[in-house]
Structures are given as C-alpha cells and as structure tokens.
Amino acid sequence: MGIFKGLFGGGDKEDAAPRSLVHPKDLQINDLVKFGFAAQTGISAGDFKVTEVNTYHFSADKEPATIFTLDGAEGLFFLSLREESGNTLLELGKVVLPEQIEQIFPWEQFVDIIEPDTGSQHTLERLTEAAPDEFAGWTAQQYCQEAGDGDEAYFHAGDYRGRNLPEDKDACEPFDYYLMVSPDRLHALRIMVFDGGRSEAILLAYVPLNKLEEMWPASNN
Questions:
Q1: How do the pLDDT tens digits run along the chain, 221 residues long?
Q2: Is residue 8 part of a domain?
Q3: How many CB atoms lie within 10 A of CB 100?
Q4: Which residue range is the domain that position 159 belongs to?
Q5: CA-CA distance, 123 to 187, in Å (whole number)?
Q6: Is the residue at 83 inside a domain?
Q7: Model pTM score
Q8: What is the DSSP letter of 106?
Q9: Residue 142 counted as domain residue
C-alpha cells in the first residue's frame, strides 16, 4: 500500500512539509500579511488577506507586474514589487475616486493629463500642504509625468508567474495608462483608461520591504 502512496502522491497530509513564505514575491491567494507602522493611512499596522493575484503588463516595463489584492479592516489595497536604483520596494496602491481627486488635486490639471493632444509633460500639484486625513501618506506635493500620451498596457486576470502570457489579445483587457511620479520617487499616481471610457486612478506609495513585518502561508494559518 505504501508503494502506491509513494507513486501517486497519496501520502498522509501530516507528512507534507509546510509551505514557507519568506518573500512577498511568493504570496498566494489566502495568505495573510501584517504591516508595521507606516505613513500610509489604512495600511499602517494592519492585517490583510490576499484575495486576488492578477497580472498587468505595462509597455514601459520588460516584465509583467504581479499585483496582489489585499483585503483588511480598512478596505482593499494593492501590493506589488518595484525595482528602484537596485533596491526592491513595496509598491502600495489605493484607489482614489473622482470626488476624492477633487479634494487632493486641481481637477483641471488632472483632466489635462488624459485629454488627447495635450502632450506628455504634465505636472500635478497637491491643493494643500497636507492631504486629507483619509489619504495621509499616500500623496506628494508635486508630480511630473513619466508615462502617457499613447502608452498601452494589458490586464490579465489571474496569476502568470512561471508561465507565458497569452498571445491572444482577446484573452486580456487593454487600456491606456498615465503615470505621474513625485521628484523623490516615493509616490506616484497611475491613471488607467479602458475601452468605453471607464477609468481608474490609483495612488501609489513606495516603502521598504521591511514595512511588511510578517507573512503567513494559507496552508499554515
């Protein structure tokens, strides 16, 4: 009987080694994470569950980006990894709605970024010295444009780590994107415009890896 178990992988569950999780790049759905104290409202000292793993391929990047959706007491956030000057940073994302954008940035400046024929050298200035409390730690005083005016990207539902993206464009959702980055490169604003005019804006903050204090694999929690 033991021979058949060995051949077909039917051993007892307690014999299987528990899955280890030492780097956020290896997160999977249902894993749990805990952040330390951070400047970003909603993330600081928060516990989250990974509920989705999706893939974005931005034209400016050679490799597709894996985006983890985090669900916690303060709502949904996004987590990815970003290489900057040889260092790996956590890219934290928070959706910002149109009525919230008007509280943070001049609406005319924001609209100009995505208007056709307005070029790709836009700047964006925060309305006040500090952002509203809801967005504390998520914004910078000033941004300059790094992508836009025809830059394309593709959204692929699901996790494509370790496998090729489908070549069939009908298997993904294309969109145009615009990226505004702060001078210190610690904050950004990504605007995505999909077919039909639907758009989404995400505030991005870049923090050190050690802000993610603990991780628990789903198989072990």
A1: 443 334 344 555 555 667 889 999 999 999 999 999 999 999 999 999 999 999 999 877 778 999 999 999 999 999 999 988 788 999 999 999 999 999 999 999 999 999 877 777 899 999 999 889 999 999 999 999 998 876 889 999 999 999 998 877 778 999 999 999 999 999 999 999 998 888 999 999 999 999 999 999 997 65
A2: no
A3: 16
A4: 18-216
A5: 14
A6: yes
A7: 0.89
A8: -
A9: yes
